[in-house]
Amino acid sequence: MTTQKKKNKKQQNDDLGRSHHHNNTSHREAPRLEIEIVTLSRQGGRTYNEDVHGHWHDERYVACLVADGAGGHGGGDVAAATARSSVLGGFSAAPGLDEITLRTLVEQANRDVVARQAEGGKLAGMRSTVVFAAIDLENQALAWVHSGDSRAYLFRGGAIVARTTDHSLVQQMVAGGMLDEEGARLHPQRNMLLSALGSIEEAPDIAVSDRMRLMPGDVLLLCSDGVWEPLGDECLVDTLHASRTPSQWTEQLDTQIKARAKPGHDNYTALTLWVIPEEEDDATRLLPVEELAQPGSAGAGRQDES
């Protein structure tokens, strides 16, 4: 489990070499958004892990991703890693939260996976889901994009206020009134996807969210189906309520998955991002952006991958 912290404060723009406008009228400083990211990835009951996660940031934007590969060792893990490098690399070069930017990132990732398939062997049939969330710290905004059944959740006040909709057969059955969410989670065909990266003949389905407000106290979760499938949304909420920190929540998710999942269960990966309320600032002091930056990172920010 790894932890990454970042803070944005509008009044730091001068120190970071970015322009800052002063006017002659008094004004209150905009509230700070301080975030903490904790990640977890396990192979579960499998002999290898085809899930990946990654995140990147500069002084204004934060980008987070989870991808779940399919195609076996030397295939699915390559597809997921290809999607990660494509999306994070593309975003770091031209960050933005608009629909065209986010959709184009996933379209390019699909082309990059397809290009690797042409190498043949285990790569020929590889696929990957992807879920990607982008945050604009200055404007306190969030948007996400996904293809497949890796999910993004936004929690506010301990409740789920937004969630992606899976591109899967059972989700289609839910939409048609044939199953409820709990029935879909336990259905024998729950792993049958209708869309994933690595499609040549038919372009994958790509869903882009509306731009959402991000507030202190909010929690973002990106995860593969190895997390939400054994737990269900109710358990996600219950474990969140029982946790005071992102590390505690991630540990609870890990414990619950191990307790509930069946033998031979899937890889599972979770990336949790907490927006720390300002009154907790003294308890979790963050490194300045300059100290977080590392040579060779994507763009002008920092990229972390596993």
Give a description of the structure:
The protein is 28% helix and 27% strand. With 306 residues, it is α+β, with helices and mostly antiparallel strands. The chain has one domain (2-16, 30-159, 195-295): Phosphatase 2c, domain 1. The strands form two sheets. Strands 3, 4, 5, 6, 7, 10, 11 and 14 form an eight-stranded antiparallel beta sheet that branches. Strands 1-2-13-12-8-9 form a six-stranded antiparallel beta sheet. A hairpin with a 3-residue loop joins strand 3 (51-57) and strand 4 (61-70).
Brief overview, please?
By secondary structure, the protein is α+β, with helices and mostly antiparallel strands. The chain has helices spanning 76-93, 99-117, 169-175, 181-186, 225-241, 246-260, 289-292; strands spanning 2-8, 33-42, 51-57, 61-70, 127-128, 130-136, 141-147, 151-156, 159-163, 207-208, 212-213, 219-223, 268-276, 302-305.
